[in-house]
Every structure is written in structure tokens, then in C-alpha cells.
């Protein structure tokens, strides 16, 4: 009953937090922003649903086809490899050929991957995993790139991005729970391949919505792809903020991928092989929702660069728990729940920081560059066939480095903010005996304006 009661407690906390953090005031400007936010979230969450519907039953479907464990591992490896090799370049082309077009390509590729699940031939399934890996790269870059460009075009305050990213993380968790239930009931009624057919239907709906609701936007459509990659490399090389952000994202999300593969066997062994998978997964999703709303609270008073230092430090302790107490199921489950809360804070925080620090002209390209180390980390760790303890030790090391990178990012952005404040004071004309100082109260606001101007 521990897992069931834990889920209920988390739901109550989530409901209380939702009503505490929701916005109560509505102005004309807010109405325009709300309409824009709804247009984005509708399509993004349909895209996420197309992904979530497939997740629970990929392994089981392959197993039902009589695939060996080694063959299934090769199929999963091909997905990460295609995301690393092909996805980086195809998804990066969104800056030149259009983010809206890239989102439509996501639907086509993922729907094709779902069609291949009807076949038992290993090589056809490999093709499906390759398409799925490319689609994943597009999902994690093109949609956000479209959002940030349109947000800037509409002239909305950069701080409103915090609301969109928080609600996206919240909605993503809700969609994950609903998709899991739909997949479960459809499998019980019709078999393992049906969730993939439902995913195709959802992706078709997403395609219709994109065509009807979104306009096209670009990074720098007149620049050749080779020059675009060079510009992105140059931008990363010349800006330590971007380098830090890329490291943090790669290390944390690489750890998250490893965690997703390890939480089930870890809790099963700690609890003598008997766990409530459905309640645990639902608890994790509710924890992410709590994290996304916690981000709203934190960001009212502090910059993400500041509070993410402590969030990452907590995540280190969370994933150290199964190393210290490998047989204590309750302690491990509690630590995993807190880690998922950290995930819920991480997603909107990094989304907002990407909006501030990454230039518009090469946004999708740079975002995919950030995913190269992520995919490499997962592939290398999986190829080593390490024990579970070793994998969690690697996770702790990765998160420790991410914490150090976040501390450095906080330091350099704080120094930049102080420098801007000094320049603002020096450039202010003296109109009376007193100096009129007009410096931004929040260093991040100054950075946001500069980032937008450079775009």
C-alpha cells in the first residue's frame, strides 16, 4: 500500500500547489498571450502524446516478436545513434528551411516509425528506430525554436516564457499519464501494436493543427547549411554561457535517460521483485508536475541560474541513494520522487535560459549540438554493459559536473549583470546635483533584452 498512498499524497500536494500558483488577473495583453500559449501547447502536447503512447510497449512488442535481448538492445541503440548522427543535421536544418516544416517532418517520420511496428523483420524495425531517433531530435528542438521566434515577434515579455515552459512541463506530465492509460486499455483490448496506431492518429491531428494554426518562421534561411553549422560552432566557442548550458543539458538529460532504463529493476530488486509499476510511473509524473509549479514559485523571486544550482545538488543526493541503500525500497522511491521534482524544475528552467542565451539565427542548430553529448553518453554507457551500481555512480558524477557548470554559469551571468549596471550608471546624464541611475533591478532582464536585440 506504500506506493498507492504515496501517489495519493503527491496528488493532493499537486492540487494544492496548482491553486496556489495559478494566475488570477486577466488583462487584454494577457488574453493575447493566452491565445498564443494555447496555440503552442495544443500542438506541442499532441506531439508529446504521439511520443508517450509508444514508450510503454516498444520493448514488449519486440519481445512478442521473438527478438532476443541482444537484438532489442541493438534496436534501441540504433535509435540513439540515428539521433546522434542523422538527427543532429536534419533537425538543425529547421533554421534554414523552417521550424513549422520541421515539425511537420516530425509527424511524418514518427508516423512512419509506427507503421514499421506492424512488421517482424529486424531490418524494417531498424529503419523504424532510425526514423524515430531523427523525430526525437526534431521534437526537442524545432517546436521550442518556433515558440521562441514567435514569442519575440509578438513582443511579449521574456519573463512570460517562464509561464509557457512551466505549463508545457505540467501538460507533458498529464499527457504522459493519460497516454499510459490509453495505451494500457488498448493493449488489453486489441494487442501490443494498437498504441502505435493510436499514435499515428494523434500525429495526423497534430499535422492538421500545425497547418491550420502555425505560421512559418526561420533562423537564417539565406545562409548555407555548412555556414550555419560554422556559425553555431563559433557562437558556442565564443560564449561560455552557451557552453555551460550545453554541458548542463547534456549531463542532466543523459542521466535522465539512464534513470528511465534503471528505475524499474532498481525498485524491483529493493522490494523483493514486487512493485506497482502503474502507481510508481504515475507518482513520477505527478512529481514532475509539482516540480513545474515549484519553478513558477522560485522564478518569481530568483533567477533560474541561481536556484538551479541547488536543484542540481539535490538531484546528486537523490541518485546517490540507491548506491548507499540499495535494498531500502522506501528510501529509493522517495529519492526518485524528489529527483522527478528536480526534473520538473529543470525543463522550464533550461528552456527559459536557452531563450535568453541562444541566438535566434542558429537556435535549432545549437539546440541539437547540445544533444550530441547526451546521445553519446547514453550509447557509451549502454555499450559498456555496466552493473546497476556503476551506472548510478556515473549518474552521480554527471550530475556533480552539471552542478559545477551551473555554479560557473551563475557566476559569469552575475558578473555580466554587475558590469551592465556599472555601464548604465556611467552613461546616465547628470541633470541635478544627484545622479539619476536607471539600472535594471534584475540582471537577467538586462541579459534578456540584449539577447533579443542581437537576434
UniProtKB/TrEMBL annotation:
Protein name (Swiss-Prot/TrEMBL): Major facilitator superfamily domain-containing protein 5
Q: Which InterPro entries match?
A: MFS_trans_sf (IPR036259), MOT2/MFSD5 (IPR008509)
For whether the record's keyword set contains GTP-binding, the answer is: no
Q: Which UniProt keywords apply?
A: Membrane, Transmembrane, Transmembrane helix
Any Pfam family from its record, for instance, is: MFS_5
Q: Where are the transmembrane segments?
A: 6-21, 41-62, 74-91, 103-124, 130-148, 160-183, 189-214, 243-265, 277-295, 307-325, 331-353, 365-384
Listed under GO cellular component are: membrane
CDD domains in UniProt: MFS_MFSD5_like
Tell me which Gene3D superfamilies the record gives: MFS general substrate transporter like domains
Q: Which domain of life is it from?
A: Eukaryota
Q: Which PANTHER family match?
A: MOLYBDATE-ANION TRANSPORTER (PTHR23516:SF23), SAM (S-ADENOSYL METHIONINE) TRANSPORTER (PTHR23516)
User: What is the scientific name of the source organism?
Assistant: Cercopithifilaria johnstoni
Single annotated GO MF: molybdate ion transmembrane transporter activity
